[in-house]
Design goal:
The structure is a single chain. This protein has 9 helices and 7 strands, in the order H-H-H-H-E-H-E-H-E-H-E-E-H-E-H-E. The chain is of the alpha/beta class and 235 residues long. The strands form 2 sheets. It has a 5-stranded parallel sheet with strand order 2-1-3-4-5, with helices on both faces. Strands 6-7 form a two-stranded parallel ribbon.
């Protein structure tokens, strides 16, 4: 087989039909002048030649891209990374291709949304806090008709939202420590969590509430909470 990509025009030449006929056959569209025998010959040649559709041409014709975008702000903990990995795996399992973007700041957010629009993604999952500048860029996706879902960050009116039970999770973790004999667990808040936005404020407080709730239910005095600088090499 030649290293040169096979085009619809080449398929048409080999079968002895017009390129329009090839396009109709490939897109499963009826044509009054194309017999079943001609269509079968075209499809047989397509299979034998190894023809692959040109992706950018498909996008220009607004063919579905089968791409789902994931935009997340850089994570300082394992959980956001694990979530993105799980999302990408599920997207693959459902027959789509994930497009990941892990960018920071207004310029990075604009670049991420540009990439999503250029790729004509069929939907975007946004995982992270929604700052005002981010909200403006996410609105561009909505204006382009791209379905949007936010995960764990601030809610956007009218946009589907997936929440996580941070308080319940911290409560279960603390209860586990108490069950295995630790009577004075402490909660350390890293400074990477002390970011001045509403999402980080809520998640930090939810961790504290879950921690204190477990300790209170165990009949112990309130637990201690320490705020630790993000020292390199300390996890």
């Amino acid at each position: 087989m030649s290293a040169t990509p096979i085009t619809q025009a080449e398929i048409a030449r080999r079968v002895g039909v017009s390129r329009t006929m090839v396009a109709f056959a490939l897109n499963d569209r009826l044509h009054t002048r194309m017999s079943a025998e001609t269509r079968n010959r075209i499809l047989k040649m397509v299979n034998e030649s190894g023809y692959r559709p040109h992706r950018q041409a498909q996008l220009l014709r607004k063919v579905k891209s089968a791409v789902i975008g994931i935009i997340k702000t850089p994570g300082y903990m394992e959980a956001p990374v694990d979530r993105a990995f799980a999302m990408a795996n599920e997207i693959h399992r459902l027959g789509y291709r994930p497009l990941n973007s892990d960018l920071l700041g207004e310029h990075g957010m604009r670049m991420a949304c540009d990439a999503m629009i250029d790729e004509r993604v069929e939907g975007v999952i946004y995982d992270g806090p929604v700052a005002t500048t981010h909200r403006i860029q996410l609105q561009r996706l909505q204006d382009a008709g791209i379905p949007l879902l936010t995960f764990c960050g601030d809610r956007i009116p009218g946009v589907p939202y997936v929440a996580q039970d941070i308080q319940g999770g911290m409560k279960e973790l603390t209860q586990h420590l108490l069950r295995i004999g630790h009577r004075k667990p402490i909660l350390i808040i890293r400074d990477v969590m002390m970011i001045a936005d509403s999402y980080q404020d809520l998640t930090m407080q939810a961790r504290i509430d879950g921690y204190q709730e477990a300790i209170s239910e165990a009949g112990l005095p309130p637990g201690e909470v320490f705020y630790q600088p993000n020292v390199e090499g300390v996890d």
